[in-house]
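Re: the request from the purification team.
They wanted to know what the chain is likely to look like in 3D before they choose a buffer screen. I agreed to run a prediction and write the result into the notebook, where they can find it.
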Amino acid sequence: MNYKNSIIGSAIAFIVATSCCWLPALLITIGGGSTLVAASQGIEKYSNVFMALGAGFLGLGVYQFIQKRKNKVVPGQVILQSIITCPLCGFTKEETMPENACQFFYACENCQQVIKPKSGDCCVYCSYGTVSCPPVQSGQNCC
């Protein structure tokens, strides 16, 4: 999960958590009946759960954003080590990337499945690694 998805998840959780406050007013404004207001009050008892989920997702998003900024590449410096995470089983392993090529296939040691990059990415490290591949890091047109 990347930090953008965490922030979107936290925003949705906060909207749902506070719906007991704004939903009745909105329903009355648009002509909603008392049954709709009663339904929104049923959500109120789960408000604390949604607030906790929202805070958790927001914290995760901030943490992932900070980690991404720490891993930012200094111009001229190419990092060859990347921690790749299998999208199928979640297994992680630190790997050394090839210096002048992209790696399109990667066989997970844990689940033995061969993974390919996400649509729009040039290699598995750009999709599932902590650091982009060396050609992308150096600003070259990758594959």
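For the purification team: Residues 47-70 form the longest helix (24 residues).
Please add any questions underneath this entry.
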